Amino acid sequence: MRAPEEIVELLKREFGEVIRGAKMDSAHPWVLVAADKWHEIARFLRDDARLHCNLLRCVSGVDRLADNEIEVVYDLLSVRPCTEPAEPWVGGNAIAIKVRVPRDGGHVPTVSDVWPAAEWHEREAYDLFGVTFDNHPDMRRILCPDDWVGHPLRKDYEFPLEYHGIPASTEFGLKSPVH
Amino acid sequence: MVETMVTSQPDVLVDWSREEAPADMRTEEMLINMGPQHPSTHGVLRVVLRTDGELVLEAVPHIGYLHRCAEKIGENLQPYQFIPKTDRMDYLAAMNNNHVFSLAVEKLAGLQAPERASYIRIIMAELNRIASHLVAFGTFGLDMGAFTAVLYAFREREYILDLFEAACGARLTYSYITIGGVTHDLPERFIEKLAEFLDYFEPKIDEYNNLISYNHIIVKRTANLGVITPEDAIGWGLTGPCLRACGIKWDLRKCVPYDLYDRFEFDIPIGVEGGSAGIPHGVVPGDCWSRYWIRMEEMKQSVRILRQCIAQFPKEGQHMAKVPKNLKLPADEVYFEGENPRGQLGFLVVGDGSAIPYRVKARGPCFCNLSITTHVCRNVLIADVPAIVGSIDIVLGEVDR
Fold first, then answer.
1. pLDDT of amino acid B13
2. Does the beta-carbon distance from A26 to B350 stay under 8 Å?
3. How far does chain A reach from its first CA to its final CA, in angstroms?
4. Structural domain for B225, as ranges
5. Bridge partners for B154 per DSSP
6. What is the mean pLDDT of residues A117-127?
7. Is the pLDDT of residue B98 over 80?
8. Most C-beta atoms within 10 A of its C-beta, which of A102, B92, B305, B394?
9. Which residues of A touch B250 (CB under 8 A)?
10. CATH 2.102.10.10 fits A4-167, yes or no
11. Are B343 and B245 a contacting pair, CB within 8 Å?
């Protein structure tokens, strides 16, 4: 099991400038990488014997409205058998990789060929945040209907007041929900 | 009565190579729409099947019919207000959802639940695991055309729901486990009632096995069907019983222990080759029968954990830590995963210094487990699709969130 700092060192040695930043003193240590090299880095993360990040746990979008960027967070983990066959498998090498793209027309290369799990996760990020994943085998909406307008998890999303003739105003007649 | 129902274990299964179906079964292709209103799709899952006679060439799941924007709501509420929304994700394991979300927020905010509260949480989580696996077992029987199982399963689940009702008043959406502990202390005599339930419940698992698990028809319909290799399982992000059925000994409670799970002794059941140790002939790791079997074995392990909980349960103590009323989340983020009955439930919580999180993302295990459907449902019979989807054991509330 490698500490997140070691993983960052490995990535920096391998890819240099492409590693844009990292935050290690967080409850969720992350590395920011350049979007255009992400596919290459993903392959390295999975195939390099020292890292072996074979389990893609989660892909989350975060709308960084203040920076006018969408952040895509990939949570990775390495899972391998214990040397003692009867023992539980060993986990480790937990790291989050972040990719940031502009809010308008942001493109991220898909990693669904590296981790098939990414296929649905990326469709979800496309559906709810409007990030396009290049070379994705099936880039469609997944949770919202195909004819839905907008991407609901964006911070500036405006709630529709009508959908196929169904009124969708809030209970107080306001234009956005109140909490 | 039970003894007479024990079927001899099948010694020879028809060696039906599902890759090559007999030529006379091939006709012309047809699209069949299964769901969203269909009893064997476990809620509102719609699967479009491209069929050739009885043979399914491709199955494409369509989800989203139960999408309720839980994550958007999470960005507008304080974490303790979001707890009831987590109930409604995997509504068959609401306690586990509450537990994982509370732990995620506590990790972010630097809180620690008191020891007694942690024991109560684990009791609830394990009870809910049993209740959830009972529903999985019962509905899997329904999918296979065996109606009896669900009646037995719900009979026992009722006891667990009564225990939950005694603890928090609710029977499905509990919101009992919350940030910093649990909302109420356990009622009087709860621990005794729990011990009574365990004594009652443990022998029932063997009864289920005699009734359903070793049933000749069930084994014939599920063994060596929908086989997932360990590599595929990890690649597709499968977790929980679906992953362990492939022979991978991976359980967060043991491998990355959280809360107090390192204080308990239990085994991780995994899928094994049939023919020995009570596993029928013809079963291979990663097939539908193995996925089903893991849940039966896990119920036994949960009973083990619960018995240790009873023995270790602290007599005195707080059920709730001191949590500020307007709990401010630091400008940091956390990703926390816990072992739910269906797999690893994860929450990414991003704070921005205010009391309301900037982003809440839920990684539902069912969402990832279901994504392998297309890969598995190739060249199977139409009647096999409910068996495969049923063995993956999805709850659409969590797939769609």
1. 43
2. no
3. 43
4. 80-327
5. none
6. 92
7. yes
8. B394
9. 79, 88-89, 91
10. no
11. no
